[in-house]
Amino acid sequence: MELRHLSYFQAVAEELNYRKAAERLFISQPGLSRQIKQLEEELGVQLFERDKKHVELTVAGAYLKEEVDFVLNHLESTKQQLLEIAEGREGELRIGFLGSASNQVLPDLLKKLSLNFPKITTSLEELSNQTQVEMIQKDKLDLGFVRLASVPEDLEMKPVFRDTFSLVVPADHPIQSKDFKSVGQFATEPFILFSSDYSNYYYEQIMGICRDAGFMPKIKHKSVHALTIFRLVENGLGIAIVPTSLKEGYELKVRFMEIPEISQFTELSVIWKPENRNPVLGKVFSLFS
């Protein structure tokens, strides 16, 4: 078995189409079919179910795909780390984050990294909770900043920032902060919320805030992006409930009013995979103490 066999298998497993996989690999379709057959013969298992119209992974093929994804990604990561070291740096830290982390937590981490480990470079991607979890499991990210109640058993999680909730209303809304006593005052208004795709746990917290105030919100719009939500609020299309820290960094015609006397709070947590072999990952944990 050679590395090219794994690359060819991965392409077919992702495309589930020999013609498209061959075009992607810049080889002929018959040549690709021969390479896959060689791999199957060497492994002694059938990897694909194939007829004239469909290509599907067998159970063995699906298992191999997960392993090949890990192996090829780890090789690519190793190559990148070698380039970093060759150029006089210690390595690269790949970080995923929610938009709310960019207001305080992420800048604070990057400042500490620059001060304590100036030879470590960073790669940053704004991603959803679930995408971060999946990419960390596959070693495509080293750290993630998420809002989740729990993570899979192969990952670790540590809270790094606790936040309150605030109501976001148009700047000219008649209810002022001094008159704001309860979310129940807004029970008849349309709400704009972060979608449950952003975080089902977070979504349920918002529902809980409203239930405790004696109503269920009339949800008019949903989004996974804070700026989109704030733009809709600004244009009078509804009101929103968001983490209070999101009020920083936006110059919009909206007002944030911290919700008083509620039990709910939201936590931003850092997650990672203990088995991740990136040599620079261990150095950053001291920065979270």
TrEMBL record:
Superkingdom classification of source: Bacteria
PROSITE patterns membership: HTH_LYSR
Keywords, sorted A to Z: DNA-binding, Transcription, Transcription regulation
Pfam family, one: LysR_substrate
InterPro entries xref list: LysR_HTH_N, LysR_subst-bd, WH-like_DNA-bd_sf, WH_DNA-bd_sf
Family: Belongs to the LysR transcriptional regulatory family.
The protein's name in its UniProt record: LysR family transcriptional regulator
Provenance organism: Algoriphagus aquaeductus
Phylogenetic classification of the source organism: Bacteria, Pseudomonadati, Bacteroidota, Cytophagia, Cytophagales
